[in-house]
Write a structure and sequence with these properties.
Number of helices: 14
Shape: globular
Strand order of the largest sheet: 3-10-4
Distance between the termini: 39 Å
Radius of gyration: 22 Å
Largest sheet: 3 strands, antiparallel
Strand content: 15-25%
């Protein structure tokens, strides 16, 4: 089955066709695709926006691109870059900016110790990125995609569970759907048990991460590891995200990361991207993920609708 193109893809195709018709014979369209040159398409020049290779990364990067286009830039989209190489793509100049997460920047890129205070984590990342990589970290969003635990709403209501402390107290009555590595990883179950005490589950079985919501729905388990912006969490009648009341896990707030040389040449980038950060909440990001992953909308359309509703005219 061939999927229908998104509205943006359709409009782009139409405009491209009209442009081709309008060109006189013997002339070809041309443009500078470098990341910092002034180009005809946007009065402020051209910037290249990257994205990680998953739904949420695509949505946020598209919001950045739309905000920059509104501000007067021509935007090259270089999306779906592997999470393991996107930082290198930025520092090497293949892209000019992309959305990162404070926890990922702190732990995976900077190799710094865990910091659970969101502002301290942000301040550390902002300073270190400038000093070590020549990168500017703009305003962090309230939206955060952090590690978490999801429980069925039925189990949460039955045992009065709202926090991970509550969960630990009732672990002997609950079935855990592990993903294997979560039981061994330093920031997984060992970190939880160091803070909350042992989790003596009624049972614990290993499932593939992609199956966890099916397992919970089929009443094969009560609790599973999760990320806090997964689209299924919009279904509060079925699932509840537990509060990490002892703040074991570091924050993973969304941050725009821009090459300092690009931002120096184009300072208008900061206002455009900071407007996105100011608007984006965890609840909204979770809803946007659900529209793509569960309702099968195109991420371009989802981002465009959100931008028109929340951001158009504000950057």
């Amino acid at each position: 089955m061939i999927s229908s193109p998104s509205r943006r893809q359709f409009i782009a195709a139409v405009l491209a066709g009209l442009g081709a018709v309008a060109l006189p014979v013997g002339l070809t369209a041309c443009g500078d695709n470098t990341s910092s040159g002034k180009t005809p398409g946007g009065s402020l020049g051209t910037v290249t926006v990257g994205s990680k290779d998953f739904t949420e990364g695509e949505i946020i990067s598209e919001l950045y691109a739309l905000a920059l286009e509104q501000a007067g830039f021509t935007v090259n989209r270089t999306f779906d870059i592997s999470s393991s190489v996107v930082h290198t793509a930025l520092t090497s100049g293949d892209i000019d900016l992309y959305p990162e997460y404070t926890g990922t920047a702190l732990l995976s890129i900077l190799k710094r110790p865990v910091e659970t205070d969101p502002q301290k984590a942000y301040d550390t990342v902002k300073q270190a990125y400038k000093e070590e990589f020549g990168l500017e970290v703009l305003d962090q969003a309230e939206a955060a995609d952090s590690q978490g635990l999801v429980i069925t709403t039925a189990a949460a209501e039955k045992y009065g569970i709202k926090t991970i402390s509550d969960l630990q107290a009732h672990a002997t009555e609950l079935r855990f759907a592990s993903q294997g590595e979560f039981d061994e990883r330093e920031d997984g179950l060992p970190a939880l048990e160091a803070a909350y005490g042992d989790f003596d589950w009624k049972s614990s079985r290993v499932y593939d991460n992609s199956l966890k919501y099916q397992v919970l729905k089929n009443d094969e388990a009560d609790v599973a590891p999760a990320y806090t912006t997964e689209g299924q969490l919009t279904n509060t009648k079925a699932y509840a995200l537990l509060e990490d009341d002892k703040r074991v896990w570091p924050p993973y707030n969304v941050i725009p990361v821009v090459r300092a040389s690009v931002l120096e040449e184009h300072p208008e980038i900061a206002a455009a991207l900071n407007a996105v950060s100011a608007a984006l909440t965890t609840a909204e990001l979770t809803k946007l993920n659900a529209e793509v992953d569960l309702e099968k909308e195109d991420y371009e359309d989802v981002a465009e609708d959100y931008f028109e509703d929340k951001l158009e005219g504000k950057s």
